[in-house]
UniProtKB/TrEMBL annotation:
Keywords: Iron. The keyword Iron applies. Pfam families: FeoA (PF04023). Gene3D superfamilies: 2.30.30.90. It comes from Corynebacterium sphenisci DSM 44792. The lineage of its organism: Bacteria, Bacillati, Actinomycetota, Actinomycetes, Mycobacteriales. Residues 1-59 form the Ferrous iron transporter FeoA-like domain. This is Ferrous iron transporter FeoA-like domain-containing protein. GO terms for molecular function: transition metal ion binding. The keyword Iron applies.
Length: 67
């Protein structure tokens, strides 16, 4: 997705442990995020409200968006 695009997170397609960790960080299904810049390792920065989340490329592959 391009920088500045808005997306709604769906439930991640991954192991329960990672789902819990993402929820602990505040990244939950149904949450609206804005896609930010790429990180050095190919991940992305996601913004929601006043929070920013750096998500690595492998985790991004496991995440789906609704819009």
């Amino acid at each position: 997705m391009p920088v500045g695009a808005t997306a709604v997170l769906a439930a991640p397609r991954t192991e329960p442990r990672l789902c819990r960790r993402l929820a602990e960080l505040g990244l939950r299904p149904g949450m609206s995020v804005v896609v930010g810049q790429r990180t050095a390792a190919g991940g992305r920065v996601l913004r929601s409200g006043g929070s920013r989340y750096a998500v690595d490329q492998a985790t991004l592959r496991e995440m789906d968006v609704l819009a």
